[in-house]
Amino acid sequence: MDYILVVMAAGMGSRYGSLKQMDPVGPNGEFIIDYSVYDAIKAGFNKVVFIIRKDFYDDFRETIGKRIEDKIKVEYAFQELTDLPNGYECPKSRVKPWGTGAAIYSARDLINGSFAIINADDFYGADAYKVLFDYVKNNTNENEGLALCYEVGNTLSKNGSVKRGIAIAKDGNLMGIKESKIEAHDGYVIAKPLDGSAEFETSLDTLVTVNLFGFTSEIKDIIVDNFAKFLDDNIGKLDSEYLVPDIINSEIEAGNICFKVKGTNSKWHGVTYREDKDELVEAINEYIKEGVYPERLFESGKILCKK
Which of 19, 43, 213, 294 is 20 to 30 A from 200 in CA distance terms? Predict the structure, then answer.
């Protein structure tokens, strides 16, 4: 049986141009994505699907893919502007990707059973992958997904505001996600919803989403099938995006699916600002000292952990 981790990496081409331009964060040239795959393998995942741009394939496979191909099954999906449901044609002036929901659409033929999704350039921590794997392995409810959340205080940057999805939860169930711009203050945060509704103050232990979800085949099919409906209303809007949080919100509201909310004691790290890299590098060095990761994650191009 495949235990699948889907890595959304199509945006990396836009940010870096080529993987060769990426900044390493580990002591021996490791990238964030290397630690993600390492943690996923250790947790029990045995298949990874990288969603990338087609013109990015050679660089991506040479830099990342080949290092792990003997440790985990690796497949690639290509998120392209022209990969749309039958009967739809991408406007010639469209340059913006269609969003995270479209990323899952692009991997539709490579996913069977429950699976987890992550961002390629977010550092989630080992515990997060253990929680995700438990869902992927043991969930039996086809209509039930998982929102793996962090306390917002563990996802902040010292260098400026960040965008997070405030998880609206009740009795362990996700009621909705409020995508917001988060600004840190002394002991609390101010959330400014991206939908234009009134800003509000919340505590540092408020749970937020960071594109870390568990899905079933049924939920995948909903995402795939509803892409056409999204295009009916938005294909001419050049900045429109088919986004996972929006899909989850609408499907929960319609009563078609439910999502459990679980937390993790991991600390999230990202590189929203150039200055964030130093903090991430320091954190990885501490993890190495604590024995969470080996100093050399790869040796002769191979990842140092078992399947």
Answer: 213
Are the C-beta atoms of residues 296 and 304 closer than 8 Å to each other? Answer: yes
111 phi, psi to nearest 5 deg: -115, 125
Tokens read off for 59: 């660089």
Q: Which CATH superfamily is domain 4-152+207-303 in?
A: Spore Coat Polysaccharide Biosynthesis Protein SpsA; Chain A (3.90.550.10)
Residue 300, pLDDT > 80, answer no
Look-up of token digits 């024995």: 291
CA dihedral (67, 244, 114, 88) in degrees, to 10, reads -90
Cα separation of 280 and 6, whole Å?
Answer: 23
Nearest to 46 by CA among 23, 74, 67, 26: 74
**pLDDT value of position 265:** 83
Radius of gyration of the chain (CA): 19
CB within 8 A of 72, min separation 6: which ones? 37, 40, 41, 45, 46, 47, 48, 307
Q: How far is the C-alpha of 36 from the C-alpha of 47, rounded, in Å?
A: 13
Q: How far is CA 159 from the centre of its chain?
A: 22
**For the segment 206-216, what is each residue's pLDDT rounded down to a tens digit?**
999 999 999 99
Which amino acid makes up residue 190? Answer: I
Residue 32 contacts residue 25 (beta carbons within 8 Å)? yes
174-198 b/e (C-beta count within 10 Å ≥ 16 → b): bebbbbbebebeeeebebeeeeeee
Distances (CA, A) of 58 to 63, 69, 215: 8, 14, 29
Round to whole Å and give the CA distance between 53 and 14.
Answer: 9
Residue 197, pLDDT above cutoff 50 = yes
DSSP annotation of 108 reads G
**Window from 75-84, 108-117, 185-194 with minimum mean pLDDT:** 185-194
- For 127, the 3-state DSSP assignment is helix
Residue range 223-238: average pLDDT? 97
